[in-house]
Structure formats: C-alpha cells, structure tokens
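Title: Comparing notes on inverse folding

I've been comparing how different people in this forum approach sequence design from structure. To keep things fair, I'm posting one structure and asking everyone to reply with a full sequence. Here's the target:
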C-alpha cells in the first residue's frame, strides 16, 4: 500500500485573473484562464490533500471535494488568503494577480460628456500576496509561478529570492494563457528541472508529486 503523497496535508491555492474595477460596469483584468491552478487543485485533492481554492473570475467547474472561495479583486484575494495561510502546509500561487488597480473606483458609471475628453485613470500598487504569505512567522511551503516572455530561468531564480519562496515554477513557451497544455520549469535551491510539455492535468500531477517530495524534506520530523 502506497500512502497518497499529500495525505493529511492542507493546500491553499490561488488561481485565475483578478478584476480591478474602474466603475460599476468597467474594469481591468487579464487573460489568465485559471486552468493550471484548477488542475493543481484537483491533482492535490487526488493526492490526499484538503484543498482550499481561492479563485478570481473564471469560467471553470470546481474540482470535486475542493473548497472554493470566489473573489474578484487582488485586495479581496489578499484578504481571503492571508487569514487562511498559516493553517495550511502548502501555498501555491498560480493566480495572475493584477500588479496595479485604479486608485479609486467611481461609484457611478463614468459618462462620456461629448466634449471628446478622455478620463485619466490613476493607479496604485496591489499587495504581493505570495510575498506576504512567505513573510508570515511560520509560513506554509510556498510555491510561486513565473510567466515571462524571455530569460525565464534567470527571472525565475531572481523571483524566488525576491519573494523569499523555496520553489518557483516557470511557464516555458509562449502563450500558455488559456491553452490546455504547458511546459514547466521548476527552480529551487538545488537548481532547475523541466517538466516536459503535457496537458495541464498531467503536469499538475507531476508538480504535486514534486511539491510533496520537497515538503517532506523541508518539514522537521
Ligand atoms: O511578481 P510576479 O507577478 O511576476 O510574480 C508572480 C507570482 O507571484 C505568482 O505566483 C503570482 O501568483 C504571485 N503574485 C501574488 N500577488 C501579486 C502578484 C503576484 O501572489 N500581487
């Protein structure tokens, strides 16, 4: 009998884009589909973990036996994640969190006034959810994602140190957003390891196995 790799472990995961309101009917978002994060949530649940999935606006079904919390904005995602993080063994940040949000959201729809003038939108920075979790006094094992258009390995190594997390997973190859397959590059203190191109569920299962191995090695007996 082979015990499941994440039996008895609690895993918290963010997925999807965020939506930053400009006014009640408009906002700024991005093309993240949430597919990779939802696949990891499913794979972790299959591996025996108790999974909490904090999801931005996506059109995906909740994986079986996964607890799902829906949010819209980066601030809502931050406020959902932070109080839960310490009670989890693993935190996986797959969400494509907006770096900036409009500094203020208009209470009413901004109207065209016919003068040809365009509104100016001032932005403010969103909190970095992953870095905030990694800074907790007793953080869960933190896994970050990196989507870069060039120099992925170098950026992933830098991101790992900057965010203070043990493992960064890079999306190799162009235009992973919305696709069903992906190629991953794992960067940790031991170096780099590629998980070859596969559908996102197969990759999610391979990644969950890699996380389980590292978690076992990092947890004091
Ligand atoms: O800094 P960058 O956005 O490139 O880092 C990506 C990683 O950090 C992803 O794991 C993403 O989920 C996480 N992140 C976050 N909160 C932010 C920005 C990014 O958790 N505000």
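Reply #1:
Here's my take.
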């Amino acid at each position: 009998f082979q015990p499941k790799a994440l039996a008895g472990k609690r895993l918290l995961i963010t997925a999807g884009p965020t939506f930053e309101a400009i006014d009640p009917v408009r906002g700024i978002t991005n093309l993240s589909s949430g597919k990779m994060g939802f696949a990891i949530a499913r794979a972790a649940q299959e591996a025996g973990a108790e999974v909490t999935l904090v999801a931005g606006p996506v059109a995906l079904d909740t994986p079986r036996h996964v607890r799902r919390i829906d949010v819209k904005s980066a601030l809502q995602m931050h406020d959902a994640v932070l109080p839960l993080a310490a009670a989890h063994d693993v935190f996986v940040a797959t969400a494509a969190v907006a770096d900036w949000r409009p500094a203020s959201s208009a209470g009413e729809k901004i109207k065209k006034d016919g003068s040809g003038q365009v509104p100016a939108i001032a932005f403010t920075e969103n909190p970095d959810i992953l870095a905030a979790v990694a800074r907790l006094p007793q953080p869960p094992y933190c896994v970050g994602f990196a989507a870069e258009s060039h120099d992925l390995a170098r950026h992933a190594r830098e991101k790992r140190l900057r965010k203070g997390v043990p493992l960064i997973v890079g999306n190799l190859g162009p235009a992973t957003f919305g696709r069903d397959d992906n190629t991953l590059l794992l960067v940790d203190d031991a170096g780099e390891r590629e998980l070859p191109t596969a559908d996102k569920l197969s990759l999610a299962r391979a990644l969950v196995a890699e996380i389980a191995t590292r978690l076992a090695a990092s947890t004091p007996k």
